[in-house]
Amino acid sequence: MQLLKDKIRRDAKIVENRIIKVDNFLNHQLDITLFNEIGKEFKRRFANKEVTKIVTLETSGIAIASITAQYFNNVPVVFAKKHAGLNMNQDVYEAKVYSYTKDQEYTIKISKSFLCPSDKVLIIDDFLASGSALMGLYSLLSQSGAEISGVGIVIEKTFQEGRKLIEEKGLQLESLAIIESFKDGQVVFR
């Protein structure tokens, strides 16, 4: 998606040639015009799939998933929580995920009342790196019996090999900007 690649080239910051900071448009301050185009592109790429729910991970995926849902007839968005409050139902699906950027393991949870075997789920997330977050979501959806219609990623870092884990599950994976490497503080796209 050229619009996204241009935005990354112009506004992203590379830290130590291993982390890409896109907090000024993707996961802290949000560029809603860009998000609308991202939602349209995910709809185009998954047009042949039945989608009854969109699932993402707290926090950065929520806005992207919500805007994307508009293009799938406003299907519900369900997000896995990293921090379950006292008001969360205790009957949940759970999985462990490791955050590369935070260097921390989380237990993610989704209430069993929001997923069922008849659901056709599109997973949407901001990043694919090692694949831990997506494998956690895959585990939650497998526990529920829901069918995974596909996986939509805004930015993929191929050098961290998360793609392989998703492809081994036989899932359609669509990444809008695929980064092969960082070189001298610059992004090298596939």
TrEMBL record:
What are the UniProt keywords, alphabetically? Cytoplasm, Glycosyltransferase, Purine salvage, Transferase
UniProt-listed GO biological process terms: purine ribonucleoside salvage; xanthine metabolic process; XMP salvage
UniProt-annotated binding residues for 5-phospho-alpha-D-ribose 1-diphosphate: A129, S130, G131, S132, A133
Q: Where in the cell is it found?
A: Cytoplasm
Can you supply one Gene Ontology CC term for this chain's record?
cytoplasm
Enzyme group, top EC level?
A: transferase
Give the metabolic or biological pathway. Purine metabolism; XMP biosynthesis via salvage pathway; XMP from xanthine: step 1/1
Keyword Glycosyltransferase appears in the UniProt entry = yes
Predominant localisation class: cytoplasm
The Phosphoribosyltransferase domain sits at: 24-167
Q: Describe the reaction catalysed, as an equation.
A: XMP + diphosphate = xanthine + 5-phospho-alpha-D-ribose 1-diphosphate
E.C. numbers: 2.4.2.22
Name the domain of life.
Bacteria
The signal peptide stretch is none
Which terms in the Gene Ontology molecular function aspect does this entry carry?
A: xanthine phosphoribosyltransferase activity
Describe its function: Converts the preformed base xanthine, a product of nucleic acid breakdown, to xanthosine 5'-monophosphate (XMP), so it can be reused for RNA or DNA synthesis.
- NCBIfam families annotated for this entry? PRK09219.1 (NF006671), XPRTase (TIGR01744)
Record text on subunit structure and interactions: Homodimer.
| Family the UniProt entry places it in | Belongs to the purine/pyrimidine phosphoribosyltransferase family. Xpt subfamily.
Identify the HAMAP family for this entry: XPRTase
The identity of this protein, by name, is Xanthine phosphoribosyltransferase
Query: From which organism does this entry originate?
Result: Desulfosporosinus youngiae DSM 17734
